[in-house]
Amino acid sequence: HVTVLPDATVVNVNTATAQVLAASVPGLSLNQAEQLAAQRARQHWSSLDAFSAAAGRTVTTETHSVSTQYFMAHGQLRMQTVRLREEMLLQRSGSDVRIVRLSQTPTSLQ
Question: In this predicted structure, which of 60-64, 72-76, 99-103, 106-110 has the lowest mean pLDDT?
Fold first, then answer.
């Protein structure tokens, strides 16, 4: 997996795929990461300490987090014979949200 963002960021253990968890947590196997992802589907981790306990491995705030600053938003608008699809990369800082990148793709419905 590759995600290009404008800033260096940490891995969010609450949204990362099993493959990313296995690659980013030293000593964690893919099988263990898949088990953690299944556990997370029932309940997200409220802290890195809770994740570390579940993983049996220590992770730090330098490399991992339980939250994120970046989000992708997808939207679609249909009007008569045209559809407009939008994709936005959003950055959250506290209660402020800004659009980092906006991509619009119009298509004809005919």
Answer: 106-110
Give Cβ neighbours of residue 13 (< 8 Å, ≥ 6 apart). Answer: 21, 40, 45, 48, 51, 59, 64, 65, 66
3-state DSSP of the chain: CCCCCCCCCCEECCCCCHHHHHHHCCCCCHHHHHHHHHHHHHCCCCCHHHHHHHHCCCCCCCCEECCCCEEEEEEEEEECCEEEEEEEEEEEECCEEEEEEEEEEEEECC
3 has pLDDT over 80: no
Dihedral, CA of residue 80, residue 85, residue 91 and residue 97, to nearest 10:
0
Q: How far apart are the first and last CA of the chain?
A: 36
Res. 1 pLDDT band, cuts 50 70 90:
low
Report if pTM > 0.85.
no
